Amino acid sequence: MSYHKIFITGNLGRDPEMRFTPSGQAVTSFSVAVNETYTNNNGEKVKKTIWFRVTAWGKQAEICNQYLKKGSMVLVEGRMNADPATGGPKIWTKQDGTAGSSFEVTAQTVRFLSSRGENEGGPVAGSGGMEMAELPPEDDIPF
Hints:
mainly beta
């Protein structure tokens, strides 16, 4: 038996989007930006952002849609979904002609790391030593 699990902590790049399956089950999708900062061989600080597309189902989807919004910090526990054609992330061509990829995660658990007041009227401050992801304009989010 094979098994895998992924944990990501980051900030929503835009408000969640909820829809319903034909059978009436709620599905909510949202993008999460995860920053990585490191020092390269030249001693320069480099910041890299990795985007994950997260899908939550059922009651959890409804709660995510109700309480999360752009900038919310979350911890997502779930499983990666590979592209059936490649076995890797979903690959597509961006509007500017360059390649893009999407790391897709089905959420098993979503923990809200922002307090209710933090999301209202301003950016979310990181907590527990975690740095807030720098969020680009919505047009630059890869999905």
